Amino acid sequence: MIAVQDVNKIYPPNRQVLHNVSLELVEGDRLILLGPNGAGKTTLIRCIIGLTAPDSGSIYVNGVDVVRHPDEARESIAVVFEEADNSYSYLTVLENLLYFGLLNKWSRAEAKRRAERMMAVLNLTPYAERLTQTLSRGMKQKLAFAIALMKGAPFLFLDEPTLGLDVESQHHIRTMLTEENQWWKAVLITTHDIPFAHAVGNKFVFIQGGKIVWSGTKEHFSTPADLETHFLAAIRSNLSV
User: Fold this and answer.
1) What are the transmembrane regions (predicted)?
2) Residue pair 235/213 in contact by the 8 Å Cβ criterion
């Protein structure tokens, strides 16, 4: 479990970007964090993974206090930030995956098995021997996703994972998130892509002005249009937050 309780964060001189934020992420969750630009989504992720310290409140990852032991807590989380480039340009796709697999202490055989499976699901197999520097932006995004999974962490955080991806690449990401759950226990995703959010998520949190203004499950939304309508209504009713 990841437990966030009453977290506040203020940036100088006096800009409060998180207001008493509380949420939980447990096994089986595919939690979608929705909010307009500047709502506090990325700051919240940075607090959970120990890159930004909250001013008050508590965050625990599998019982580990993130504020006191950020490095230990971070071992349980794999994260891909928006437009992240976590690969080495002078290595091939396969070499990058094997390197990060070995770095995360998998045996060579297990690292190879994981790399081959992820390349197959994400349609990276034809590019296995290509240098990363020759890949398109979409292929680099999928490789960043695959590299994060080589960590074998129980929690996966994705910040705008479909940004700039073509329809086929989005399909591969969506398929892996909904079907390949052998690689993680729970996922937290920030996105502005409502159809993608509806297809992937089973829990939803709306954040506006650093405050959670609504949370619930997919049962509330039969279609992407329902999700969008509910989200916009919740955000517009809290514009003064």
Assistant:
1) none
2) yes
